[in-house]
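Q: I'm writing up a methods section and want to include an example of the input and output format. Could you take the sequence below and give the corresponding predicted structure tokens, formatted cleanly so I can copy it straight into the document?
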Amino acid sequence: MKCSDLMHIDLQWVPGSASAREAARLMRDHSMGFLLVSGATPGQVAGVLTDRDLALRVCAEDRLPKDVKVIDVATTQVVACHQDDDLKGAEKKMKAEQKSRLVVLDDKGQAVGIISLTNILFGDSPRRAVKTARGVLAREAEGPHTPMDQIHLTPSTPEDEEAVSHDQSVMTGRTTNTSTKMFP
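A: Here is the clean output for your methods example:
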């Protein structure tokens, strides 16, 4: 099977000169978390922008989305494959780069599609697709997560219910040193 057999061809582009706010609104309006950033010539990919890029490079840095240019927060090291590449090669690249999406290029080096982990999970043999998914998601699996058997849920207290009834919401979360923090 070739990459062109599974790739998604409805590409969504955003100019590198657009603001992060414009890109975020485009993502919201089209219910997507991935945009191609256009280069100087049509079809040329200058980068890719994900909802994660916006969260980590705009929100987490307390930057104003209306003042940040897409090209300044986009991932410019684009991981790509060719439309005629064998799917096995694309899966190997996804695992090696730990990327859940690859830009698919034609003979002229222009973007003609996106192949995602989702495309592979639905279109490839189940056994191979799961191996690819494990390889791509390994980075997240290795992160600082509390094992499920160590998470202890407690019932809400009357104080918690009172706070909710007064339209005040309280979120609690665990930090890596296992203390509890309150987030207003």
